[in-house]
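Quick sanity check, Nitrile hydratase:
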Amino acid sequence: MTADRLAALPAIPRDADGPVFREPWEAQAFALAVRLHEACLFGWDEWAAALGAEIKAAQAAGDPDTGETYYLHWLAALEKLVAAKGAVTDAELADRKAAWDRAARATPHGEPIVLGRELQAP
């Protein structure tokens, strides 16, 4: 992603080399947004507006905006935008979230979460 495209995004955590991520899922959410943009699902201005609206709503709801919740807002904006574009239904999103929640609960601490693990015998 070029520097001018990064500059269009609100307050993205970054250093001199580019975006920084605290957890692997943050990098995956970032990459997913980039890929969906490349697939022409949305433009950067549209994405920046969706992310900005999500951040403003969170701040209005009391988010202290310390940067720790940035990618939670990123993911929420992405979910809303892909649903609004018809790329996924609300039911599909809910089903996938529930599947990840079940998989996370079935995963021993310290192991990678594997979708479908909740279906495997212990």
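Posting the structure with no commentary besides this: The two ends are 42 Å apart (CA to CA).
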